[in-house]
Design brief:
Layout lengths: L5 E2 L3 E2 L5 H12 L3 H13 L6 E6 L3 H12 L3 E6 L7 H9 L5 E2 L6 H13 L4 E4 L3 H9 L9 E4 L2 H12 L6 E4 L4 H24 L7 E5 L3 H12 L3 E5 L3 H9 L3 E2 L2 H4 L5 E4 L9 H6 L4 E5 L9 H6 L1 E8 L2 E6 L4 E5 L5 H4 L6 H20 L7 E4 L2 H15 L8 H7 L7
Parallel strand pairs: 3-4, 3-6, 4-5, 6-7, 7-8, 8-17, 9-10, 9-12, 10-11, 12-13, 13-16
Antiparallel strand pairs: 1-2, 14-15, 15-16
Length: 425
Amino acid sequence: MTATTVRTNYEIKDPSLAPKGKQRIEWAGREMPVLRLIQERFAQEKPFAGLRLAACCHVTTETAHLAIALKLGGADAVLIASNPLSTQDDVAASLVVDYGIPVYAIKGEDAETYTRHVQKALDHRPNIIIDDGSDVVATLIQERQDQIQDIIGTTEETTTGIVRLKAMLRDSVLTFPAMNVNDADTKHFFDNRYGTGQSTLDGIIRATNVLLAGKNIVVAGYGWCGKGTALRARGLGANVIVTEIDSVRAIEAVMDGFRVMPMEEAAPLGDIFITVTGNKHVIRGEHFDVMKDGAMVCNSGHFDIEIDLKTLAAKSTEIKEVRNFTQEYKLNTGKSVVVLGEGRLINLAAAEGHPSAVMDMSFANQALACEYLVKNKGELEAGIHSIPKDVDEEIARLKLVAMGIKIDSLTAEQIEYINSWTSGT
């Protein structure tokens, strides 16, 4: 922590940053009409009155609107950062100063500080947890068993977090409901594909100012995040190579016009490498050994383990920062590998994360998932639950209305036809 860090019932960089943060929060709100409608309803209905809520999210201008919605809904809410490099310090300051929401988040916080903030979230004794990567839920289960009785449920919006929740369920330790926000259509189709696609390349450009046209960009993983990243990289003129472990996704990448090969074959070819898998050590020692001099590696998955930075450091004779969020590792072979954003989420480390128009739908899902947990308290079984289809469709409908886009409706004849087995060709 720096000398300007303030510690009280919140922990932020500097309260004097609040005016700038408030201005940026209000700007983001221009492109978040769905969440604004939810805020207005929550302010009237107070669905979270008397409930404590802890949210572990990227502390950005978009997240601010989710936090405001929860408070307007009556929640006693606390917000902590889900990633050490994603916090926007001016936004954290504004949430504390202007909106009265306790925040524990500092851009660049070390592992010890992050762990302490997770404990702060649990000290709040939440009834509902909004998680990003399931760190808070995992800590609750491992260290705070006595608090599980207070939990109504949790929501999770990342692929990594859902994988961890499924592992908890297999081990019979997930004893309360968890809402799978990540797999809602209005989340992964748009947030993962269009949000990650644009913001990842935005982060790379801001960190390096390199021209992407003509570069060989290797995208590791062809899930929704990988699809979006590959699509946007090609749109900027890059030659895109995809690596995959899933045969179906690999075929899809080929059919979408990308070259597909193992990482060991892609490693000597790539100029820029982007991991979007959610797994560990996707790029490792044997890959660094054969990379071009000056090859750049970054991550847009979740945790900073997708790139094996420990092995890279062990192979290096010098590590130096050459630009903000850009470190050059000088290998003992004389070549260098450039790591962006310390291997953490490049779109949030070096840029501002997803555009607010995309997060409007993602955070609408989060807010409505929390409301669903409260409305169905005591009725949902322990385990992982999908966002109800009607909620997903309503978010999409509201977004279309806000965009001024109209769509067709089925006629009575069409409804009868698709519901009948007697009408043939």
